[in-house]
Each structure stands twice: as C-alpha cells, then as structure tokens.
Amino acid sequence: MYWNPAIERLSAKELEEIQERRLRALVNTVYNYSPFYRKRFKEAGIHPSDIKSLSDLPKLPFTKKQDLRDTYPFGMFCVPLSQVVRFHASSGTTGKPTVVGYTANDIRNWVESLCRALVSCGVSNDDIMQIAYGYGLFTGGLGFHYAAERLGATVLPISAGNTARQIELMKDLGSTVIACTPSYMIYLAEYASQMGVDIAEDTNLRAGIFGAEPWSEETRKRIEEKTGITAYDVYGTSELSGPLFTECTERSGIHVWADMFLVEIIDPKTGEQVGEGEKGELVVTTLTKEALPLIRWRTGDITYIENDKCGCGRTHPRIMRILGRADDMLIIRGVNVFPSQIEHVLMQIPEVGEHYMIIVDRREDGLDELTVQVELSEKAEIDTTGDILRLEKKIAEKLKSVLNVWAKVEVVNPGTLQRFEGKAKRVIDKRKI
Ligand SMILES: [Zn+2]
Q1: Mean pLDDT (the chain, rounded)
Q2: Distance CA 429, CA 327 (A)
Q3: DSSP string for residues in 90-127
Q4: Looking at the predicted structure, is the pLDDT value of residue 99 above 80?
Q5: Most CB contacts within 10 A, which of 35, 293, 311, 357?
Q6: What is the value of pTM for the model shown?
Q7: H/E element, 236
Q8: Residue 191: phi, psi to the nearest 5?
C-alpha cells in the first residue's frame, strides 16, 4: 500500500535528477529573496551558479538553530508574511524561541510527507487515530491531525495529558492507533492498569507512532509487551516542518522522502561528510519548502543512512534509529556518553522498570559523578536489601562495560520517579546549574 506510488518507487537516478533540479532552484531562490542567505553565500565565496550537481552540496554553508535565534523572528523567511498561513514555534529553553512559518504549499507538502509515512506503517481510513501529542505551537498535534484527516482516518484530537480521559476515550471510541511520545505511552499503560484497564485486552489499540524524544529498541519491546500494539518510530523537527517521516511496516529505518528532502551525514566536529553507512550528524536540505527553506540544516541528531531498496518496495533512503542528539551528549570525566546508551543498557535488564533519571554532578575534588536512578520493575521478585544491592552492582557493571564510566546506581521503588506527559526530561546536569 502506497500513498503516492509513482513517487515512492522512483529509481535512485530519477530521485537524484529531481533533487538536483530542486537544489539548483532552491539556491537561486534563497539567494534572491533572503538577505540572510545572500550574505552567507558571499561569506562562503559562492554563487548559486556554482551549484550544478549534488556533488557541489558541501560547498554550501550550514544553517543551525542559532541562525534562527539570531534572526528572530522572520529573518530567514524567503516569502512576504502575506504568503504565510501559519506559524509554529519551539519553546526557548535557552534564549529566544525559534519561529517557523508555512505557506499553503508548505502545509500541503507536510501533509503529503506524513500521509506517505502513515500509509507506509499501515494507517488507513479504517483507523481511529488518537492524537496525544500537544496541539498548539508545538508541531506534533496539528501535524498528525492534518495528515490523518487527509487520508480519511477518524481523528481523536485529544492532545497531551489528561491521562484518565485518554484511557476512557481510547476504550469507548475504539482508538486503533495512537500518536504520542514513547515515555507517555509507557505512562499511559501504567495508568491504565491502575484503572483496571488492560490495553491489550480491553481496547482496540493496535499501533502507536512514537517520537519527539530519542528512544531505544528495548523501550519498543517493552511498550509492545505491555500493550500488545506495534510501535513505530517517527522523525521530524519543528524547523523542518514537524513530524514528517515514520518507519514502514518493515521497521528497519525511517524513509526520508528524497524528492522533498536531501539528507547527508557529517562528522559533527569537522563538518565533513562521512562515508556511506557511517554514523554522524544528520544534515537536511529542504527541497520544496517556501516560507523557511533550510540549506544544510544541522539537526544535531546522530544517526546513519541506509540507501538500499527497502523490503516494502520504497526506494527512498532510510535514516536509522536516532542514537542521540549531539547537544544531549554528556561528557563525563572526558568520556562521551549519550543518555540513549544508558537507556539501552537499563531496558535490557528484566528487573528494571521503564522509568529512570540520569544525574550528573561534580564532586568537591572536581571529578564528575554520574548517578543513575532507576525504578524496580513491578514484576521483579526482589525482597531483601541484599538483593537490591546485588542488582545495583549488576547494573553498574553493565553500564561500565558499555559507557566506560562508572555510575552510581540507585534502585528505587516502582512509582517513585517523575512521570512526563510530553517530552521526558530524564537528565539533570547539576554542573550547569
Ligand atoms: Zn520501507
């Protein structure tokens, strides 16, 4: 099943031709309509006529989040506001928020991208889709809403939070698909069981589309075991539009629609493109966006790209599971640690529950100290303090073998740690406070 079979199965060569044509048009547009880009091009000593093929891409300067902040609110827009039909904005945790504008075509293309994705993971007009991402300036809610309606699914626009009501309506209205953060799905399942509702037995839910925070393969397994649903990964960032791409039913990577987005992987330190299949930072050039086109946008997300044709028949490249964010990387005693690596280790240990916190602090002697707090699983058969101490030691040893850093592990009772309705904030870096 395809949403747009002609485009989704184009040959690599045909896709490349589209990309080259659109890239050439894009560099001309931004040069002519955006003082920001014209200045950037001049600083880099390049002119749109220098960009003839995809191999010229590395000549173009990068753009990053700081550029949007520096030009807040509209400095990178390439159309007059009369053509902008919507704003979204990301919360400014540090400094100004970033504002993204959309023309009517931008909204149509966003919907097209997510419709292709939703169909690729089996969503259809027979589905009832519970959208439990936040609505509003955050792109999650409205992004899924427009796409699900466009493909004819029945939308339940419940937004984030209000967990008891989520479960009640899921049951009563028969939601078959849910879209939310993976940490919220875990919380929902927990809450449901406290209400005496078994999601697998008592609801029609069959699939979930989870994203907006990095999550691991082990968390996927846990969600699926707890709820009996199939869990799909979604990718998108507010600057690129919002949720755009999901895994297909093969679940081996997320298809990026190459006619709309040009992806590269670079070494985050040097900015050089890495070899095929190597890990690095995902960099995206938007090929069809009008209001806020982005050239070589540094997403900060660490992943790698698979270019082989997928078992589903789609030819577009796949980005593999996001391993973490370059920004989220913690440096502990000189060692690079991604929170996602810690989650990966924890979720492989059966006695460990789904909730954890990572705390980094600096001791009086100046050395960094990593503390991992984790809840005991409800199912773990552990009674004595001795058992807890043995479990803490086992977790610390597993973490050491993967991270190369010792962590102080504290196992706490189920239900003790904080729950999150939106994006989980699992890292507290006290060195920055
Ligand atoms: Zn596929």
Answers
A1: 94
A2: 13
A3: E--SSSS-EEEEEEHHHHHHHHHHHHHHHHHTT--TT-
A4: yes
A5: 293
A6: 0.86
A7: strand 230-237
A8: -65, -40
